[in-house]
Amino acid sequence: MSEPLLEISGLRTGFDTYDGRVAAVDGVDLTVEAGKTLCVVGESGCGKSVTARSILRLVEAPGTIEGGTITWRGGGEDGTEEPFDVLTLDPGDKRLQRLRGGDIGMIFQEPVASLLPLRTVGAQLIEVIRIHTGLGKKAARERAIQLLDEVGIPKPAERVDAYPFQMSGGMCQRVMIAIALCANPSLLIADEPTTALDVTTQARILDLIRSLQAEHGMAVMFITHDLGVVAELADEVAVMYLGKVVERASVEEIFADPKHPYTKTLLQSVPVLGRDRGRDLPTIPGTVPNPLHRPTGCSFHPRCSEAIAGRCDLDEPPEVDFGGGRTAQCVLYDQTEGVRA
Amino acid sequence: MSAEAPEPILQIKDLHVRFPVQRNMLGRVTVENHAVSGVDLDLRPGETLGLVGESGCGKTTLGRTIVGAQQATSGSILYDGHDLTQLKNREKGRYRRQIRMVFQDPFSSLNPRMTLRQIIGDPLVATGEARGAELEDRVADMMRRVGLSPDYMDRYPHAFSGGQRQRVNIARALIVNPKLVVADEPVSALDVSVRAQILNLLRELQADFGLTYLFISHDLSVVENIADRVAVMYFGRVVELADTASLYEKPSHPYTEALMSAVPIPDPALRGRGGRILLPDELPDPANPPPGCAFARRCRHAEPGRCDTGTVDLVDGTRCVRRDELDLQGIVKAES
User: Fold this and answer.
1) Is A228 close to B266, i.e. CB distance below 8 A?
2) Sequence ranges of the domains in chain B
3) Which of A104, A56, A77, A82 has its CA nearest to residue A219?
4) What dotted CATH number matches B10-249?
5) Which residue of A has its CA nearest to B228?
6) Within chain A, where are the H helices?
7) Which of A54, A192, B72, B89 is an S-S bond match for A109, by CB 3.0 to 4.6 Å?
8) What are B335's strand-pairing partners?
9) A238-264: pLDDT as tens digits
10) Strand pairing of A319-323 and A244-250?
11) For residues A146 and A129, what is the distance between their CA atoms, to the nearest angstrom?
């Protein structure tokens, strides 16, 4: 096991709405190890994006982070700086500014919407480079061209002066990656970066992320709902459902031997090339509940085929530890009861 | 194609759709984008024809042209002995009932100010087919068929999840007993755990009502699950057309091969097993289509002088001049 780079513990982030408070992230524990890839999987509304945004304290009103700790251990040039809790930092703290776009780079789902339409990609790239490296204008421009080249943009010396609308979605995502990489981050947070792209473009972006990771040795926290992408990239996987991490395992374990009933049915219900031609798919009944009306007990119990009446609908499921960083929040594995080891 | 192939329910012949992008001072179109350029396609009664391709390949435009939401520039769409592109306005209503569409986005395709009763019953009211108690009965019946409780009839769309709204969309399409349904990315906007429900529902309704589907999607795994035959579109043309099994096991167009190799397989054991074809980004300019095969510039099998000149026709279900020389790779299968 390598060193933990980022440790999230008991994170709770909620949003105030007219109908009451929505607990988007409800006690999440996650660890990202240096140089490794953690994939966070879940459906819309499970809190995976809010978790990622909380790390950089980018949650906007009416959202607030209510509790938990986010410990960053990658501080300083050689990682010698004292670890600190991101959530206790003052908004003006230098360390927070260095974290955002410096030590931690972030890319988002809609690459075209994430770039300013009225400024050239070069200008946006150069600005971030200058903030984080202190290079002069000219040197920063050269670095920008070099970065664009590195992320596979053809004719970078010309493209540096292009506007986002002159580029395709895949190209814009490459620019976003270049911006995220400009200060040699130790962690790249990628929030569904390929969801809006075609499969052929997606394949090339994933390839790029993988090779950059190998080159720079950075850790990646990759958020997605696509299990194919998970199999492709992940070292570790965390499955989220309604604001909680319901299962955590290595990528091999999660596909070969999923523990949580949600993970199990999710893996079966998604059509897989060559496996499900023309056949009825197993389904998860119902829909993801409204987070305002979170079911009592285990939030998955109304859709779960293995739910135990009188137990799953009443008690919060325990977090069962299988060792080696593998956990599942489900009573089925509760050793104290000895139901199933 | 076998000799006993049934009479097609819909025949598309040399269909072209072009969009004007620039006009000169006199209002004459000087630059046009070719969205659909010369599509020939037959739909057989009772089948599901999958239509796949990347964004911008013209698959949605083709679907919209079939339902009459988009004017064809030239070519014909034959249905029941009539050319749908030449219909007079008053004849259109009749065919609109027989050919219906289900849209991608369940959030924007339902009027938020109408109740489910109004939305689903609207086609019946508009055609004057039913009203009063009969209207209510038919709406209630249709709601049950798509898995919605008729108790929700007087609720508004905002009260429903994406999957439930897509059921409303399907009910609205089916209430006038259509023969053909054009489904444009019907599950793409849905949560992964809900997709399977809608795919199974579409299959069930197809059997119950004897429907024919044109299923448009960019997701090859979904299309493989639901389609009997698949047409692959690239740059406004059908580049390959085959039975689902043969297309996925043994593609005959390099574009199909590349597309399939790009789909991530949910099995970590297959990671890095090679075979992934990374396509360069160069898409041709839709206002100025290149000669020869439109895919030639991105194709690893392209031969200069052969692939980039003249015209390439769809022969034996593939639009590739090297079809007999290439041995292309089908899908890599997951273990389980």
Assistant:
1) yes
2) 10-249, 252-336
3) A104
4) 3.40.50.300
5) A278
6) 48-55, 94-99, 111-114, 121-133, 137-150, 156-159, 169-181, 199-216, 227-233, 251-256, 261-269
7) A192
8) none
9) 999 999 999 999 999 999 999 999 999
10) unpaired
11) 12
3-class SS letters over B190-241 = CCHHHHHHHHHHHHHHHHHHCCEEEEEECCHHHHHHHCCEEEEEECCEEEEE
Hey, what are A38's tokens?
A: 């953690």
d(CA B240, CA B314): 7
The answer to whether the beta carbons of residues A313 and A304 sit under 8 Å apart is no
For A69-81, the pLDDT digits (tens) are 999 988 665 556 7
Q: Which tokens sit at A134?
A: 């202190």
Residue count of chain A: 341
Best B188, B218, B221, B299 member to test A by mutation, with max A CBs in 10 Å, is B221
Contact A269 B196 (CB under 8 A): yes
DSSP-assigned beta bridge partners for residue B15: B39
Residue A127: which residues within 8 A CB-CB, separation 6 or more? none
Q: Which residues of A touch B283 (CB under 8 A)?
A: 168
d(CA A325, CA A246): 13
- The answer to whether A86 and A11 have CB atoms below 8 angstroms apart is no
pLDDT of amino acid B1 = 46
Would you state the structure tokens that stand for residue B150, as one six-digit string? 């008729």
What pLDDT does residue A76 have? 60
Chain A hits for B161, Cβ within 8 Å: 287-288
Residue A69: CB partners within 8 Å, gap ≥ 6?
A: A7, A8, A9, A10, A11, A85, A87
Q: A100-116: per-residue pLDDT in tens?
A: 888 999 998 888 888 99
A244-250/A236-241 β-pairing: antiparallel
DSSP 3-state of B162: helix
Distance of CA A82 to the CA centre of its chain: 25
pLDDT at B41 over 70: yes
d(CA B155, CA B143): 13
Phi, psi of A220 (to 5 degrees): -130, 130
- pTM (2 decimals)? 0.90
Chain centroid to CA B22: how far?
28
CA distance A326 to B151: 44
Question: What is the tally of helices (H) and strands (E) in chain B?
Answer: 9, 10
Geometric angle at alpha carbon A228, from A226 and A234, rounded to 5°:
90
Smallest CA-to-CA distance from B293 within B272, B269, B271, B314 is with B314
**Nearest-angstrom CA–CA distance, A162 and A164:** 7
Instruction: Kindly determine whether residue A255 and residue B265, on different chains, have CB atoms separated by under 8 Å.
Output: no
Backbone conformation region of residue B285, classed left if phi is above 0, alpha if psi is from -120 to 50, else beta: beta
A-to-B residue pairs, Cβ atoms closer than 8 angstroms: 153
What six digits make up the tokens of A13?
């982030």
Q: At B13, is the secondary structure helix, strand, or coil?
A: strand
Cβ–Cβ under 8 Å, residues A273 and B260: yes
Q: Rounded CA gap, A208 and A205, in Å? A: 5
Chain A environment of B54 (Cβ under 8 Å)? 198-200
The DSSP element (H or E) to which B184 belongs, if any, is strand B180-184
Place of tokens 């599509």: B39
CA distances B316 to B36, B42, B220, B313, Å, are 21, 14, 22, 10
CB B232 within 8 A of CB B248: no
Please give the backbone phi and psi of residue A117, each rounded to the nearest 5 degrees, phi first.
Answer: -70, -20
Containing B246, the helix (H) or strand (E) segment is: helix B244-249
Q: How many CA atoms lie within 13 A of B144 on its CB side?
A: 6
Q: Which of B105, B166, B225, B285 to mutate to test the interface with A (most CBs of A within 10 A)?
A: B225
